[in-house]
Amino acid sequence: MKAEKNQIYIYDNVFESHYTQKFYDFVNNSYFKIGTSDSACKDYEERKNFGSTYSRNDLKELGLLDALPKEIKDKFNLSYKTVTRTLVNAITSYGLYHPHDDSGNKDIWSFLYYANMRWDLEWGADTLFLNDDRKSVRQHVQPLPNRIVIFDATIPHLIRPSTMHAPTFRYSINMTFGGNFNPQFEK
Fold it and tell me: Distance from CA of residue 38 to its chain's centroid?
């Protein structure tokens, strides 16, 4: 079945346990810095968050695309050749996250993988998908471990901060696919 535009697809328990541990360890040991942003919107450029940007080599070393089931890769044309950006968000209760979309490079699909091994409901850090007005919620998605969300890159969304009770960062790997080649990604 072919993927449709303007849709949000959710896949749970995608990877076997040894992969989820590998992905978590890789993310947890990444180089994080203040200053990452998942939007090119000038209105929010002063709002820098905590994250890590991955090169194509980092992505290959992570191995997430290699472990992804073929049916999912084929449905969305997900490959090392079609990825245009990869970053890891490290969500905290102190973050300020804003509505945005991921279509800046004319990307077609956005991909989220929630990388924590455990994440309790009361810890927050959900992803909210918004209607075009960017003020009302279209769909609420919990950051369950081993969950993948693939969605049309033009759908506005935002991350909610974690609660003060969250014992650690809420990690998500965010990739964009299918747009124009991004030479910055090769660095």
Answer: 9
Residues 154/105, Cβ–Cβ less than 8 Å? no
Alpha helical stretches, state H, 29-167 = 56-62, 64-67, 70-76
Tell me which residue has tokens 């535009």. Answer: 5
CA distance 116 to 171: 6
Instruction: List strand residue ranges (DSSP E) for the chain, in order.
Output: 8-12, 33-36, 49-53, 83-91, 109-114, 127-130, 137-141, 147-152, 157-159, 170-177
Confirm if 160 and 126 have CB atoms less than 8 A apart: yes
Which domains, ranges and CATH numbers included, belong to the chain? Answer: 8-181 (2.60.120.620)
CB atoms within 10 A of CB 90: 22
Sheet holding 8-12, edge to edge: 8-12, 147-152, 109-114, 170-177, 83-91, 49-53, 33-36
pTM: 0.89
Q: Extract the tokens encoding 120.
A: 């309790």
pLDDT tens readout for residues 32-90? 887 655 555 554 455 567 789 999 999 999 999 999 999 999 999 999 999 999 999 99
How far is Cα of residue 37 from the mean position of the Cα atoms in its chain? 12
Report CA torsion sign: 11, 59, 105, 53: positive
